[in-house]
Design brief:
Blueprint: E1 2-7, E2 20-28, E3 31-40, E4 43-55, E5 75-84, E6 87-97, E7 100-109, E8 116-127, H1 149-160, H2 172-176, E9 179-191, E10 194-206, E11 209-219, E12 222-231, E13 238-249, E14 266-276, H3 280-286, E15 288-296, E16 299-301, H4 302-306, H5 312-321, E17 325-338, E18 341-351, E19 354-363, E20 368-377, E21 389-393, E22 398-402, H6 404-420, H7 440-446, H8 460-467
Parallel strand pairs: 8-9
Antiparallel strand pairs: 1-2, 2-3, 3-4, 4-5, 5-6, 6-7, 7-8, 9-10, 10-11, 11-12, 12-13, 13-14, 14-15, 15-17, 16-17, 17-18, 18-19, 19-20, 20-21, 21-22
Helix pairs in contact: 7-8
């Protein structure tokens, strides 16, 4: 730790009611603080001037800033510091945190038993990589390439781990001893290839209960609203949330699904969940809830769709003559989440080329995929292995592959027929097609989206409709 400074001559304090000019520079590790301003000797708490903060990680300002800030990339901020009575204010500050800009007003009120932090902040260019600390992982690499020793240690451990979800414990004690009321608005947000805009949230922390009420942002031409809460008063933190997605354009998130014309439909949905645990990984492993997604209209790549049926004959034609467009009639899914195990109650994607049915599940406890997509073709083919397609592997290394057992059986049947009469070998690989269209209106009407944590419901009628079909 190092501190130095300079002030006016001693004669300047002849009138102790006048402001005394001084400049201070303090450094602790990588944290650097510079203040240029004045203090009134007769009221030592009456301090004001410019304050510049610079360091590797905002969380290292704790406990001088009593708010339990998450990990951040290197930051540099400057603004006006005012201290009067029990209030510290940082006004009109601006600067950068990683590759994001940040500005606004903040205040710490120490007059109560529990410090109260209030802030109103905004960013014109927010990079999602700078937000990793919010979910317990080190922030992504910024242009500075600088990380704290702790961030480097955790990053190295995560690089060799097979897990994705963070096992970094929440700072429960820090969340219990302070209250906060923070608003934030981000104009433009860089989130991988998905364009986001107008991110806003209101964060309330009071008596050990943290609420995001709500998180609201635009994405891919649509809109997402989420209300989340975290109660840290017990030995085990408890969370619950509701998420609503409206009118999101699929092709801007998954461009490979788009048709040659460049469209892929829009979708919406709702989710509600409850969980408990002191890490993100523990919460995911214990989560219970439901989610539902619906998409109507749009177009998709015929080549992408026929490959879900492993329709090799049609795929070869499309590869040679060029891809075509298939109409998406609807895509409807309802999922149940029980103790970290997510399984589709029903999952159907109906298009003019194929109808795809989903089964299996996603294991958040072991971070594994086990989804099976079975396609029924609407056109005949002389060479179709007919899947199913398996989405397997782990969250860190997902794998998409054909289901070996079903394909081996068909190839084995073809070999058996070939031993009798070679021309018969193709019979086992022919797909007669003719799959009927799904009654989308009925399916969508039967889908009851969870409205809130206290209103988690299933869709028995839709499940009955699907149960009567043999994909």
């Amino acid at each position: 730790f190092h501190i130095d400074g300079q002030g006016q001559a001693v004669s300047a304090v002849r009138n102790i009611g006048d402001p005394y000019q001084l400049a201070l520079h303090a450094r602790a590790g990588a944290t650097d603080v510079r203040f240029v301003g004045s203090v009134v000797p007769s009221e030592i708490e009456n301090l004001q001037g410019s304050l510049q903060l610079q360091g590797k990680d905002l969380s290292q300002l704790y406990p001088f800033v009593p708010l339990p800030l998450p990990w951040t990339p290197p930051y540099k901020l400057s603004g006006q510091l005012v201290h009067h009575g029990a209030r510290w204010s940082y006004r009109q500050f601006k600067g950068t945190v990683g590759d994001s800009d940040l500005g606004g007003e903040a205040e710490v009120d120490l007059s109560q038993a529990r410090p109260l932090v209030t802030a109103d902040m905004s960013s014109r260019r927010l990079n999602y990589k700078d937000l990793g600390g919010i979910v317990g992982v080190p922030p992504g690499d910024s242009t500075s390439g600088v990380k704290t020793v702790e961030q480097q240690r955790v990053s190295a451990r995560r690089a060799v781990s097979t897990r994705v979800l963070s096992d970094q414990p929440f700072e429960l004690g820090r969340l219990r001893i302070v209250d906060a009321d923070i608003t934030f608005h981000g104009t433009s947000v860089a989130w991988a290839d998905a364009p986001m805009d107008n991110l806003s949230t209101h964060v309330l922390l009071k008596n050990g209960i943290l609420r995001f009420a709500p998180v609201d942002f635009g994405i891919s031409g649509g809109h997402v609203v989420a209300s989340l809460s975290l109660d840290v008063n017990g030995e085990m933190a408890r969370s619950e949330g509701n998420i609503e997605i409206r009118n999101v354009e699929l092709k801007r998130i998954f461009p490979k699904l788009a048709s040659p014309k460049g469209t892929a439909g829009r979708f919406g949905g709702r989710a509600a969940f409850k969980s408990q645990g002191n890490t993100i990984a523990a919460m995911a492993a214990s989560a219970n809830g439901e989610t539902a997604l619906i998409m109507r209209g749009g177009e998709a790549s015929t080549l992408a769709l026929v490959m879900t049926n492993l329709d090799l004959a049609r795929a070869v034609v499309l590869l040679m003559q060029g891809d075509e467009t298939s109409q998406i009639h609807c895509a409807v899914g309802s999922f149940k989440l029980t103790d970290g195990q997510m399984a589709p109650q029903f999952l159907v994607i109906d298009t003019s080329a194929v109808t795809i049915y989903g089964s299996g599940g996603i294991d958040f406890r072991d971070e594994k995929y086990d989804l099976h997509l079975t396609a029924s073709s609407k056109k005949a083919s002389i060479l179709a292995l007919r899947g199913p397609i398996v989405v397997g592997g782990t969250f860190k290394t997902p794998v998409i592959r054909p289901e070996a057992g079903a394909i081996t059986a068909r190839v084995g049947a073809a070999a058996g027929l070939a031993s009798v009469a070679p021309p018969l070998a193709l019979l086992a690989l022919v797909d007669p097609g003719g799959a009927p269209d799904v009654d989308c209106a009925s399916l969508v009407a039967d889908t009851r989206m969870p409205r809130s944590v206290s209103d988690i419901r299933s869709a028995p009628a839709a499940k009955a409709n699907l149960a009567s079909r043999d994909p």
